[in-house]
Model the fold of this input.
Amino acid sequence: MRINNVIPALLLSVLAFQTASAQSSGFSAPVSSPARKPGELIVRLAPGTGVEEAVRDINALPVSEGTARFSRNIVAEWRYLLIAFDESRVNAPAFAAACAALPGIESAQLNHQLEYRGVEPNDPDWYQQSDMTLINAPDAWLSSTGGLTPSGDTIVVAVLEKGALFNHPDLAANRYWNWNDLPDGLDNDNNGFPDDFGGWDVASYNDGTGNNGAHGTGVCGIIGAVGNNGVGVTGVNWKVKIMNVSGVEYDDDIIEAYYYVYVVRKQYNESNGAKGAFVVATNASFGYNNQFPDSNPNFTTWCQLYDTLGHVGVLNMGATSNQDVNVDTDGDMPTSCPSEFLITVTNVNKLGSRVPGGYGKTSIDLGAPGTGTYSTTNAGANTPGYGNIGGTSAATPHVTGAVALLYSMGCESFTSDAVSSPAACARRIRDVILNNTAPSLSLKDITVTGGILDLKLALGGVTELCEGKVGPLSFLKIRNYQDNNLVRLYYQTPLFFAYNFRVFNALGQLMHEKQIIPDQFSENYVEFDTSNLPKGVYMYSISRGETVATVKIVKN
Done:
């Protein structure tokens, strides 16, 4: 028995007949027919039936109008052949059903086009975002596109930059706002930062967006450009909140910026979400070449900040040097800091090969796509636009976005301790990312993981930790009970809302339908009593919207 997430050809023909058969079985479950090749029918002959005999019998059917002709053998050994017919004269669904009922034909189905289950946004410049396909983002988006944790926390990422253009149409909806404060000159939420309504600018001591620089705008777009909004590009997260922490240009700015992030996340933990912000990650695309933490007292302080942030639940992403240097021997700040709460990133091209940049078997954790990354930018000082951003500055926000995306995966046990045990949860997220990279020969033995960020593999790590309770919609296993008359189908889902469970026979007739609601805290299965069904082939499906998982089961 083979379980498959992609609709097999048999189910495609099943769906074509669903509406009519639903009426006869008392259900109303319209499903639009998938695309197909017009005028083509796939036929499997019964043993002993010849091709000429089959074509003759098909043309004898009144519905065929005598237009059927043999086209080719698909697999002669398995008795599958392709029949062509004139669809301008023939009703295709009725023709297929009539052919399937002939004694010399085991099955007949129209030649439908498969629907692959990747998720691609409708943003018009998506075709330029090969970086997202390199890290297998569409596979992860099957399970989540970001936004909230299963517990309902609004996921926030802090971006430390000189500034960014947050009125950009692909960023505005995802900008973080502190609704516990008001722009009234007062510190309404008592966090020590008056009027931090839209984040914090350490240079001007207010919530301004800084210099609105193209660099910061591009970084924010990689992390969280609004996805599937029909505009521009999409980020790793479609719905994450981006906290602006701007004005970062000198060493003292770094300390103040990280302190602001620390305060709001600590406040969130201590108030159980009533105040502060659920900041899970910071992104820093700046540093110093050829420096070690002990070469300057300020650098030692800088490194200590990561542990401080980690203890309240914040993971920190750092871009390594764009020089082709061994960070282990030549140094780099901050990517030579030893903190377990700092993930260090180097740059790979669109083929997944390392380009000149920092490396180090001890210091640099993984690679991510940076070269020629297409993202949001500024066409002028305050004019939104799109363009390329490159280097480790572009590689690092992919990992930052990945951290935020993992927090949104629909397994509550995976992040249930994010507020009560924030450091432990942050370590778990870090481990899932670093333990599930895609191997790269160009990074082998010169980085900690030897691999590239891979969201599909990371999702697999979450699925494993959650014992199959979360992941793309799919059947996991099937068990038979009560003399094989009771079928139990175990499944996983990315969401915990209502799904439709349906059973079809080989002619596409709907035999059974009911609504099921997955339980996010336990193993999920659905049972079906087959004792009243005749022997034959049946298709079982679970669906929600356009997403369908199917499995074929034979009742003997």
